[in-house]
Amino acid sequence: MKRETITQQKFEREIKEGRTDFSCCVFKNLTLSPLSLKQPGLCPFSFICSHFHNVIFQDIKIQNTLFTHCSFKHCEFISTEFIRVRLLWCDIKESKFSDCIYRNINFTHNSFESVFFDREDLNDTSFRDSTFRDCCFIDAKTLRCDWTHADTSGIHGKAWLHFQANTRPFAYYHEGFVIVGCKKLPLYEWIGNYEKIGKTHDWIDKDIKLYGDFFLKCKDAHNDYLEKQNKGKANHG
After folding, report:
1. 137 has which bridge partners?
2. Which of 18, 53, 63, 234 could, after both became Cys, cross-link 33 (CB 3.0–4.6 A)?
């Protein structure tokens, strides 16, 4: 997939022209802030109803910025610095955060689905009124986070076996279930589909060998899970 490169100059020009769709773009080595757009420093810059689909944010700084009713899908945030940033009523799906810096970030009334936080330091972050579905916080720090009225039933921790190919979707295993992208099925159904359909399977994401190895690891993890379950039943029997 060829992505459009957004430079600092191009970003400033197209924002002033009213652009809201940044699908299939790469933001790299630039700053998103009111100062970069020559706005007053105390006045937050706003993205309203903007779309970020299949976007890579790498080595950028997002400062004093508000995202409202925005959509993020298939996004990667790599070494992104968030400073006084608020996301309000945003949809964030099938995306990953890694090696980011968070300084006063506020996620309020957001919907997270199949989002992956990889060893992120999220201390003091607000997730008020947000919902989570099939999300993974792998070795993430979450001290003093604000979870007021948040639905955290869809958050899973480091017990998950996870896998990421060079392209989407992510794949996860946990206690008998496998998630690939937004699809969640019992492991035996994935294995049955995989063995039956093989290389023609459209959700394998073009790399059947890597996913094949992942499913073998799932089988091993699942056998361990069943063994622990059986021991637990025996101890209570």
Report:
1. 117
2. 63
% helix / strand / coil in the chain, to the nearest 5? Answer: 25, 40, 40
Read off the pTM. Answer: 0.67
**Residue 124 burial (10 A CB sphere; 0-12, 13-18, 19+):** middle
Domain boundaries, the chain: 1-157, 159-237
- Locate 186 and state its tokens: 């019992």
CATH of domain 1-157: 2.160.20.80
**69, 111 in Cβ contact below 8 A?**
no
Higher-pLDDT residue of 184 and 37 is 184
Q: How many CA atoms lie within 13 A of 134 on its CB side?
A: 22
Taking every pair of C-alpha atoms in the chain, what is the biggest distance, in angstroms? 70
**Residue among 4, 97, 105, 120 nearest 55 (CA):** 4
pLDDT tier at 203, thresholds 50, 70, 90: very low
Give the angle 212-120-126 at the CA atoms, nearest 5°. Answer: 125
pLDDT of 59 above 80: yes
Alpha-carbon span 109 to 90, nearest angstrom: 7
Q: Kindly report which listed range (90-104, 108-122, 218-232) carries the lowest average pLDDT score.
A: 218-232
Q: How far is the C-alpha of 228 from the C-alpha of 145, rounded, in Å? A: 32
Indicate the helix (H) or strand (E) that contains 187: helix 187-197
What phi-psi label fits residue 129: left (phi over 0), alpha (psi between -120 and 50 degrees) or beta?
A: left
